[in-house]
Write a structure and sequence with these properties.
heterodimer; A: about 110 residues; alpha+beta; Translation Initiation Factor IF3; 2 helices; about 35% helix; about 45% strand; B: about 160 residues; 3 helices; about 45% helix; about 25% strand
Chain lengths: ~110, ~160
């Protein structure tokens, strides 16, 4: 599955738009990370625990989006966008959405340029 | 009694936070500058249109992501700044550092995949400090994402 955030896939033509696909996950952080983070709030700097947590969560949201596209029989997801929102205290929602499309290789691909 | 403890806490926490925060920030900026010098091989743009799309072998989504917080000194300074208005330098520096870091991580990921170019880069920001009840520090999450292009080797 090709996942890009441009409107088309370079070198390929979109032949069919299958529709919007999306994936989300809401993650709560656990106490241990929270304690380390509150120390960091004192001295500043990167909160590595949260970075890891959110990276993992975003990967999960993306995987759900790709699974949905797979069900539709798509070749690629284009124009992918991400949003994050704090829905409840101590939890963040990661949301990924894009358009599932069917592709065909561009005819002029093999010609010299 | 409570006020005395509170005052002592401020007396200890503020200078400590100031010192460690300053050192962390300096170190981070130095590392950013060094990595930025070494990452001129990947061209980054936020253009939707790809130049010379025929020479693109494959494309892939790449991301760079960071969660970063200010120190206690700076968040206190930000609170005071709220009273008088004007430019909030402490928060501004935090955003700059976060964006540069996220962008560098995006470039590093693109390079690992053998890409020479990243187009349609977007920045996504969220303030996750609102998630805590009694929050003192500003915590922000920054995500940079874009499409990495792997070009066909020149004939």
């Amino acid at each position: 599955m090709i996942v890009v955030n441009t409107e088309t896939v370079p070198g390929q033509n979109v032949v069919e738009v299958l529709g919007l696909v999306q994936g989300n996950t809401i993650r709560a952080k656990h106490l241990g990370r929270d304690i380390i983070a509150s120390f960091k709030n004192l001295v500043g700097g990167e909160l590595k625990g949260y970075t890891e947590l959110l990276t993992e969560a975003r990967r999960e949201a993306m995987a759900r989006m790709v699974a949905q596209a797979d069900d539709l029989g798509a070749d690629a997801v284009v124009n992918v966008r991400f949003t994050t929102s704090a829905v409840a205290s101590g939890a963040a929602e990661l949301y990924a959405y894009g358009t599932a499309v069917k592709l065909v290789e561009a005819a002029d691909r093999t010609e010299p340029f | 009694m409570g006020t005395i403890i509170g005052f002592l806490w401020l007396l200890v926490a503020l200078p400590t936070a100031f010192l460690i925060g300053w050192v962390t920030e300096r170190r981070h900026i130095r590392s950013l500058e060094e990595r930025e010098r070494n990452s001129t091989d990947v061209r980054v743009s936020n253009l939707k249109e790809i130049s010379c799309p025929k020479s693109v072998q494959s494309s892939d989504l790449v991301m760079g992501h960071v969660v970063i917080a200010t120190d206690y000194w700076k968040s206190t300074a930000a609170k005071l700044r709220n009273l008088v208005g004007g430019e909030m330098k402490s928060a501004q520096m935090l955003m700059i550092r976060a964006r540069r870091e996220a962008l560098l991580r995006l470039i590093e990921q693109a390079r690992r995949r053998g890409a020479s170019e990243v187009c349609n880069v977007r920045f996504e920001f969220s303030n996750i400090s609102m998630m805590r009840g009694n929050q003192v520090a500003i915590q922000v999450e920054l995500l940079a994402y874009g499409t990495a292009l792997i070009r066909m080797p020149d004939d």
